[in-house]
């Protein structure tokens, strides 16, 4: 009797042991009763993309999506986002992508533009990091499109980077895309649901939506008076012919929503090129306090033909000073943060760079590293 019961106990122990092994070895076939099999201990802290992993790897969700094809016009909506970056700011593009995906449950397709030198680097970064599996395409910007058209008169030579002008050429870069697209500068972080911005109603006859400079918080922090006179030379006769009010509110071109079909129809690219070229021959813009770069031609072309974007969807000037100018609680309510100015969140000092750090995905090749004073940002 004693021997038998020892045997029984031994067999029970063996069964229990095998069961435990199966529980951990074949996790997908046995339900996780005890919630023990959490993989988060293995996952990197920076692997903050649970939503993407679910969307791409759970067949159940894909089926739900397919079932819903006939369920209504909203069911199939894809948000198209364009971001442009060169080698110096590539990490900004990565953090921005991650922030958009972390804060939406909608399908986002990324249309990424960079230069010849960085296309492979970008592809590798996405493919070998937690961003693997996102829906994206990479285009290299043909610098020849803007050769001889850029003339920077003010001090900020970095505004002359050809990639800054890629936003002028959206229909030429993406000829198959006829729908709406959101353009976002690579020194931004999105904290709201991108679908809300994408769906903004654009007034009939308007060509895009931009955030105005003279409204709400965005005004207070800028030392400019936020009007067209800060950006254009009103002595120029071509500018005068446009009948623009010098005191009209300026807008920021770092974030906009537009319909590519109307952009194409109205020859926006041709109009922007016209002003760029004219500015190389005569003074149209660039000597004013607002500076040159890609902003003034857009202000000329979109004058009086844009719908305002709500100010929480473009909280800017975070890069204007190194010190904190917004409170932590205001920052937490903003839907989009923009570090325009000199102090980038991947640089030595910048305000609220902790928000940016949350979304940064380290570069597996180690080429791009945020600079931090007194502390390293390690994976
Ligand atoms: C299908 O879409 C509608 C509205 O878009 C939603 O209310 C519904 O829950 C969806 N159905 C499934 C099965 O997900
Ligand atoms: C587009 O606009 C530019 C500048 O105004 C003009 O030179 C060009 O001919 C236009 N192209 C078309 C197809 O209308």
From TrEMBL:
Keywords: Glycosyltransferase, Membrane, Metal-binding, Transferase, Transmembrane, Transmembrane helix. The chain crosses the membrane at residues 9-26. It comes from the Eukaryota. GO terms for molecular function: glycosyltransferase activity; metal ion binding. One of its GO terms (cellular component) is Golgi apparatus. The keyword Transferase applies. Belongs to the glycosyltransferase 8 family. This is Glycosyltransferase 8 domain-containing protein 1-like.
């Amino acid at each position: 009797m004693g021997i038998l019961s020892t045997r029984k106990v031994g067999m029970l122990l063996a069964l229990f042991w095998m069961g435990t092994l199966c529980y951990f070895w074949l996790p997908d076939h046995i339900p996780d009763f005890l919630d023990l099999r959490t993989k988060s201990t293995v996952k990197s802290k920076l692997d903050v993309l649970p939503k993407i992993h679910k969307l791409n790897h759970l067949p159940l969700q894909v089926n739900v999506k397919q079932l819903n094809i006939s369920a209504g016009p909203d069911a199939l909506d894809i948000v198209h986002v364009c971001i442009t970056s060169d080698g110096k700011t590539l990490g900004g593009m990565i953090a921005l992508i991650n922030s958009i995906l972390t804060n939406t449950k909608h399908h986002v397709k990324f249309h990424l533009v960079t230069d010849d030198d960085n296309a492979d680097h970008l592809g590798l970064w996405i493919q070998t990091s937690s961003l693997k599996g996102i829906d994206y395409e990479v285009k290299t910007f043909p610098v020849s499109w803007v050769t001889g058209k850029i003339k920077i008169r003010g001090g900020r030579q970095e505004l002359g980077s050809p990639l800054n002008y890629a936003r002028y050429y959206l229909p030429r870069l993406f000829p198959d895309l006829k729908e709406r697209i959101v353009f976002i500068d690579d020194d931004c972080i999105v904290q709201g649901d991108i679908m809300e911005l994408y769906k903004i109603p654009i007034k009939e006859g308007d060509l895009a939506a931009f955030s105005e400079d003279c409204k709400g918080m965005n005004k207070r922090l800028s030392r400019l008076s936020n009007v067209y006179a800060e950006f254009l030379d009103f002595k120029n006769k071509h500018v005068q012919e446009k009948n623009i009010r010098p005191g009209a509110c300026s807008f920021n071109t770092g974030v906009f929503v537009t319909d590519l079909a109307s952009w194409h129809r109205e020859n926006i690219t041709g109009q922007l090129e016209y002003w760029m070229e004219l500015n190389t021959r005569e003074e149209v813009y660039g000597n004013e306090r607002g500076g040159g770069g890609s902003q003034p031609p857009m202000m000329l072309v979109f004058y009086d033909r844009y719908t305002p974007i709500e100010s929480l969807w473009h909280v800017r000037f975070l890069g204007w000073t190194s010190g904190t100018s917004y409170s932590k609680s205001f920052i937490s309510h903003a839907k989009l943060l923009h570090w325009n100015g000199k102090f980038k969140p991947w640089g030595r000092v910048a305000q609220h760079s902790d928000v940016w750090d949350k979304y940064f995905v380290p570069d597996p090749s180690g080429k791009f590293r945020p600079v931090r004073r007194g502390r390293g940002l390690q994976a």
